Structure formats: structure tokens, C-alpha cells
Sequence to fold (1042 residues):
Amino acid sequence: MMSPYLSYIPHGHCYLWQTPLVGLHLISDALIAIAYFSIPAMLIYFVRKRSDIPFSRVFVLFGAFIVLCGFGHLLDIWTLWHPNYWIVGIEQALTALVSCYTALRLVELLPQFLALQTPEQLEKINRELEKQIAERQRTEATLQMIVAGTSSVTGNDFFPALVENLAKGLDVAYVLVCEVADSSLQSLRTISLWAGDRLAENIEYELSGTPCQVAIETKLLCTYPEQLQQLFPTISMLRELQAESYVGVPLLDGHQNVIGHLCILDVKPFLIDDRTRAFFSVFAARAATELQRKWAEDDKRRAYEELEFRVKERTAELMATNTVLEAEIQERIAAEASLRVMAEQAQTINRVVLRMRQSLNLKSIFQATTTELRQAIQCERVLIYRFKPDWSGELVSEAVTEGWNLLLPDSANDSELTRVAVDQSNCVTKQLDSSEILMQDTYLQASEGGIYRQKTSYCCVVDVYEAGFDECYLKLLRQLQARAYIIAPIFCGSQLWGLLAAYQNSSPRHWKDTEIRIVTQISNQLGVAVQQAELFAQTQHQAEELKQAKDVADAASRAKSEFLANMSHELRTPLNAILGFTQLMRRDSKLSTEHRQYVEIVNQSGEHLLALINDVLEMSKIEAGRTVLNEAEFDLLQLLDNLESMLQLKAKSKGLQLRFDCAPTLPQYIKTDENKLRQVLINLLGNAIKFTQAGNVVLRVCHELPADAATAHILQVEVEDTGPGIAANELSQLFEAFTQTKVGQVAQEGTGLGLRISQKFVQLMGGEIKVDSEVGKGSRFSFQIQVEVAASVANAALSNLEHVVSLTPGQSSYRILIVEDNVVNRLLLSKLLTGLGFEVQEAENGEIAIELWQEWQPDLIFMDMHMPIMDGYEATRCIKQAAIAASNQSEDIAILETTKVPAIVALTASVFAEQRQKIWTAGCDDFLSKPFRREDLLEILTKHLGVEYLTQTIDRSPSVDEVAQPSNYVLDAAALEVMPSSWRQQLHQSATQGDDAKAEKLIAQIPADYAALAKALTRLVENYQFDHLMRLTLELTDGNSP
Fold:
């Protein structure tokens, strides 16, 4: 670097940079740079070693400034040969920036520099520190002394050691460790108390007003360094102890609940520093832990003492129990031995009884009993002796060991064997002195069974020759080869039936108690078996009698059913003609008003007769249990509307207001038996209108929503009227068949079956008709039934069929075949069908019907089921089978088109389900009950042929019910008071007798001034409404009667 050819001097011609001086500059700059780098290194080392001194960042800034200056001197050396002055400029800028920042920081820190302690001050502080260190050392020594004194002790020994070491270590007069005396924290009880130079006796003191209360309530360390008595002047204990200062801390458990207290009292002021406060708190925590341990040990000790007491008590009980058990064991051993004997006895008895119960045949029972009993007690003969009505007897069964004589069957009736000695006066019952003989045998016939008539009696003899029996009796025993015996009575209920005897033949025998019990118990069971066998025989006899009675009753029931079926057919057939032709005549527009009224009367009477017939037949079905529910979906609202329309005219004719109150939430479509519900409503409403003379009749219908989807809906129905009411004593017989109340008997209408039938129908639907009534105020009938709510009705009922006049033009021609042996019925159907526009042909029996079907191929056949030659059942089967066979076998389309399978509708007057089932089985598609309404016929045709009708509103004259009363005249009992009482009585008598001629003569006697009254009464008579006349005249006659 200092070679002669490198003589560049970058700083111009300054004398300082003369060539000879380059070396000097180089050495000086290098040394300065080394010094500048060394100083920051030592500063950084110093800062790292003394991180606790303040202003360490200033030292770092100084180090940075000095380092930059050292870089400046190194760059001076560099620029001697390399003129890179831009590097020098950068270095100088950085140096300036760091130096300026350092100067600013020094300005900020100058007040802190000036606040630094002087050496004198530092010396003073040092002396204070030495003093504090000495105090701390003393405190630590005290702490170590206390820790050393308490660390090795626990439990109850800890608290005396704690108070003693605290008192000595802190040089105080009193130290107390207390525990709460009760859960209410009202008082404290010392565990250990140091007073002066010794442990004092523990005391208990009230907490209120003491410095301890403050510490416990705040749960913090509390100190009163002086003037303690002045602060708490009411505490006498402080004056007695001459206490001047106080330090206390509460003892807390893990849940920060106060459990005790640690405090010191001194007779001089006592200042506490933080160190003392800290270790005081530490010992308080230790004391709290030891106090909890003490409590736990106390609880454990008490529990142990209690357990030990209980163990001792239990031990004493166990010893007493053991003594009792030992006695019981001895008793049980004896009892087990007895039970084994009893068990063996019971097994023996059960085995014998089981053999008895295997049969109800007396001979088998006796044989099994004697055999089993002989084997059970190992005797040599067992006999069963049966008494006769005269108290003589006979042997009925015997079991004997081989080698001994058989008494049966040869000598079963041997008079010598079975006789009793009644010819000697000294042959009487005796009581023997031997204790082994409980009872002596008797002469049974003379004494009518003797001692055996008592159920508890039996006879046990060890040796017949030692028993003192008379020679006559010994002779009998020798024939039996008996040496010892047991005899027990056999009772059938309370009647002595016979005797069971077990004999020992070979030698005398001492009978055991178990053997005696076996014989007596088997005799008891044998009596039960005899009674059961006789009862079984009696039961078989009664069963045979009952079977015969049942056969007779079934025959009578079949005869009744056949009679009712025949009567139904015989009555409904003429009614079909009456009602059918009246329907035709009612539609005749040329009919005069008077004749129309006559037709209405005929129709009304026929309907009334039909209702009576239906009631009788329905009651018969109910009694026979043949009435069932036919549930179907229907329109409830339409049913109620139809009923209201049907009954409204009848109500208006009597001046009554008929009102139907239906709940807004009532479902339109429901599922139940529509016909039975309709009949119940008609019966209840009809009765209400019939017996109500003034006021109103109300039908209320609502329903209860189910609590859940699985619960059925409840339909509630109530019929209320303002009629005469029903007496309380008549309510019980209201629903009995053929029974009427007093009002019904006076009205002389009906059969007394309507309510009975209605009740049965409602019961079938799951309800019960209830009645509330008060005489003179009216009645209320109500019931509830379960129904299902339907979304809609699949086949809605046809409407407006009453006004059908003909088939709608443009339809196909429909052929109807009428098969009926009754000319009138054929004529009726023919008139109805031809009047509508159907093609009709007739047949008298099934054979003609089959021929006409094959030739004419009708679309629908009305088939009567009861006809001569061939009935409707056979004809229906033949037609259906032939039509189906032809359609299945023929492939010719032309033949298929000409061979129709017609709809067959049965014409029947039967109302019995089994006959209708027979109709379905025969192959009929539907049935039409006689008598039928024109609307029923039209509905059948629509259902099976799909025909459409042309309707027209017919302006008809008022019906009988409509003209029964003039609209401007009210006929009541008061209106008849214008006539004499004798006249009214005669009118009542004529109405009772149904004598219309006599009634018309009486009406003719009414003066012309009362023409309206005469006209109203005349209409009642013409319409045969004698019940109305009776009610009007009855009120007056009752009112005038005494």
C-alpha cells in the first residue's frame, strides 16, 4: 500500500497530506478506529452485565455513535487510494443522524440524570437497606423458629405449638386460635390460648362488638396497632387483659366460609409490616387446614365411637338372636321331621285323590281308592260301605290282599254279612277304657249311622277281642276276618253316605296317627268325589234336558222366523200395491182435490201400517240378535234437511214450531249406519210432535272433535219438546217393548216399540239414549254415538227424484223384464216403468223369465224371489251362469253383443239379513224391498243402467197435513167450550171408538155462528185424526171431572 508507485493523495495539496505524512495519518486513523470499536464493545458488555441500571439505551446510542466515528476513520484510510467519497458522505450522514438523536435523548434524560442520588444519599439509603435487611433477617429467624416449632406437629398438638411459638417469636402477650361455636357465627370458642408465659384454659366469648367481628365479617386480616381499649370500650375482656394492640385474621375453608379465627393481643403497641402480615396469613391458612382436619378427626372419632356402640349393641342383639335361632333350629328340626311325615302323608293322600279324580265313574273311583289306600297303609283289607235309605247297607267296593276271603261280588248283598244286631238289648254303643280305642263301632241301622253321623268321628280298634265287643258284633267281624280296624265316615255334603274301613286281619295292630289321618282325609275326599260324580251325572241329565229344551226353542225360533218372514211377505205384498198405486194416483193431475185428499188418507194409513209392521219385525230381529250395523258414508246435512222437510208440515198442521239447530262445525259427510240413525231421529222427533200440543220441538246436533287422530268423533243429538212431560215413575219403563206411558195410552197411537227399537239402535252405534223430563214442562231425549268423518260420499244420493216425469230424450231404449207371480205387483211395476218410457215385458215364473231373457235380452230384470214352478233364486242362477258361460266361450263378436249379462234386482218383502244374504248368493245385483217408493225404483234404475230423467215441478194440492187446519183458525180445547159438556163427552167417546159417523152427527149440531169450528173438526174426522180429537176433548173432560 505504501509503495512509491501508489502516491495518490486524494485531498489535494493540503500540507497535512503530504506524501511523507501519509504513514502517520494511516497509523493514527487505524488506532483511533480500534479505540472507537473497543469502547462500544465494552459499553455493550457493560449493559448486558448490568441490565438493571437505568439509561441502558443511552449507552447503546453512545456505542452506535462511537462505532460510526470509527468507520469514519477507516474510510479516511480507504480514500487515500480510492476516491469513493459517496461512501464517506453516507457514513457522515449516519453519524450526524445518530449524534443528533443521542443529543435529543440526552436533553430528555437530563432531569433524570440530575435526580440521581448523591453518594451521601446513597450511603443513607444503604444504611436503611441494611436496617431493613436486619429486620428481615430477624423476621425470617422468627418465621423459621415458628415453622420449626409447628412443622412437626399436626392435629390437636398443632394449635398449642402455634400459639406458643407465635407468642415467643413475635414477643406478644396473648395468642388465640378459635373455632366458630355455632353456625350463626354469634360466638367463638378457643382451641388454644396463650397468656403471658403459659397455655391458659380455653374460653368461649360473644363475637358481637369485638375486633374479631370486624376480621370475620370482612374475611380479611385486621390490625389495631394501639389504643385498642379506646376503640372498643365496651369489651371488658380487653380491659382485663390490658390489651393495647390487636392483629387478627379469619380462618376460611375451601369455600371461603369462616370456620375460625387467629389473633394476637399485646399489652404494648404492635406494628406489623408486610412480611409479618404475609407469614401471619400463611399460618392462618395452615391453622384453617388443621382445624378442618381436627373437625374431620372429631367426626371420625365420634363416628367410630357410635359405630363401636352400635357394634356392641348389634353384638348383643346377635347373641340374643343366636340364642333364639338355636332354639328355633331345634324346633325346626323337630318340625321338619313332622313335615316329612306330613309330606309323606300328603303324597299318599294326593296319590289316592289323583286316582279318584281320573274318573267320574263311581265304580272306578271306589276301586282305585280301596286299592291305593290298602297299599298306602299296608293293611290287608279295605271296604267301602254304602247306607241305604232305611240305614241298612251294602258293600260297594273291596281291596284285599291275596290269601284272604273275597267278600265281593258274591257276598255283596249277603244279609248275614251286612245285617246289624238289633235283636239284643245289650248291643249298644260303648266307650272303651283303652286309650288306643277312640270310638267303638255301632249298630248302624238301629242308630241311623250312629257316631259316624258326626263328621269328626271315626273308630280305631287295635284288637277286636280286647275291645269288649258283644258276641253278635264279633261274629260279624269274624266273617270279615278282622283283627284290628279303622273306620271313617263318608259324607256327601252334610249327608252321611257310607263308611270307609281299613282292616288288619292277621294280627292286632297299633294304628299310627298318620295312618288315622290318611284314612279320615281320604274318606273326606271320597265324599267330595261321590258328590262330584253324582253332580256330574245330574249335570249330564240336565244337559240332556237343556239340549232337548234348546232344540224345542230353536224349532220355535225357526217357526217364529218363518212365520214372521211369511207374514212380512203376505203383509208387504198388498201394501206394495196400496202404496204403489196411491203414488201413481197422487201424480194424476186430473184428480180432484177431494179425491186427492182420499188418496192421501189411504197413503198415510198405509205408511202408518207399514211403520207398525216394520216395528214388530225390527223388534223381532233385535230380540233374536240378528240386527247388525251397516256402516256407510253419507251426507249428514242432507239427511237432516230431508227430515226437516218431511216433518215440518206435520208440525205446522198442529201449530208447532219445528227447529233444527245444527252446529256450524258439524261435518257434512260421516260414516255410520244411515238408516238406523234416520229411524232413531224420526222416532224421537215423531214422538215429540205427536205428544206436543203447543210450543216447539227442537233438534240440536253437534259433535266433539277428537283429542287425537286415533280417537273417533262424537256426534251429539238432542230432541227437546214442550209437551206434557213424563212422570218420574214411568221413566224406568219407557224403553220396554209394548209399554206406553199414560200420555201414550190416552193418545192410543203406536205399538210401544219405537223407543225400544231406537234405544237398541243407539246402543249398536255405541251410545245410550238418556231422558230428562218434567211433567207439564216437556221432555229432552239425548244420545251420543261414535262416527267417522269422511271427506266426501263416493256415490251421492240422487236428488229431486220425486219430480221425475220421464226419461231424458235421446237416450238408448232400455228393456226391463218384470218377473212376478202377483198380477197386481206386475201391473204396478209395469205402470211405473212404461210411464217413464221403458220397454217392459212380464213373466209369471222363473221358467218363462229364462225364455224371455234368451229371446228378448233385457237390460235389467226385476225378479220376485218366491214364485211357483221355478222361484227367483233358481232363475237368477240359471240366467247368470248361462250369460257368463256364453260370454266366456263365444269368440263371435255378434253373439257377444246379443248375449248380455243383465242386472238382476230382487223383489222381496223380507227384512231378514239371512234371506238377503241368500239373495246375494244367488247372484242378484241389488234388491228392492216391498213396499217400495217410486223414488227407490228410480234410484235402482239410475244405479244399474245409468239413465237420466226429465224432471218437472208438479203443482199439487195441499196434503192432508197441510189442510188439516185452516191457517187463520186455531183449534184448541178452549174453542170447544162453546158447546155443552155433554156434547163434548159424546164427541170424546166417538173419537175413542173411531166412530166417524157419530162424530159427523155431533159436528152437525154446532151452530152456524161457529162454522170455522165445525169445518176444522170435520177435517179432523175426514182425515181420521181421532187422536187429535181425543186430546182436545180429554183436556176439557179432565178439567171438569171432580
Notes: Residues 1-8, 411-450, 794-799, 954-968 have pLDDT under 50 and may be disordered.
